[in-house]
Write a structure and sequence with these properties.
By secondary structure, the protein is mostly helical. Helix content is 75%, strand content 0%.
Length: 146
Amino acid sequence: MFRWRKKRSHAALIVEDTKQTLRSVATLGAPEQKKMAAAVATDIMSALQYIEKTPGPTSPERDAAVRSIVSRATENRQLAVARGATTHADPAWATAALFESWAMMNTGVFPRSQAETVQSLVFGWIGSVLTKDDLDGIEKDVSGRT
């Protein structure tokens, strides 16, 4: 599938970076966290919808879709840095980084336990910030885009 190296150390870095980002995000106010969580949830739901439109789990189309998602996520984080983000607590950087971590860890390249850790961290944070009604609204918006 991917030619990325399947190093546990790389996955561990992603897990640690996700934890650090969430610790920094926790210092931000509730309105800012809610805005960020909504953006991350929207990106994740959009990515899942895009992936689900491709054939089977091992198709070239699915691989291309996943690559595209990871590339976009990485570009968004790099854009935040280019625009002046300097810490994990910068909302633009943190939003992009959390989505990028989720996307990278869902490529099937990294150990399942570490991928599940990142997914749990990101979804746990989203669930602690957004209500079910918020999430239902985001899902409806994302579904309506097709």
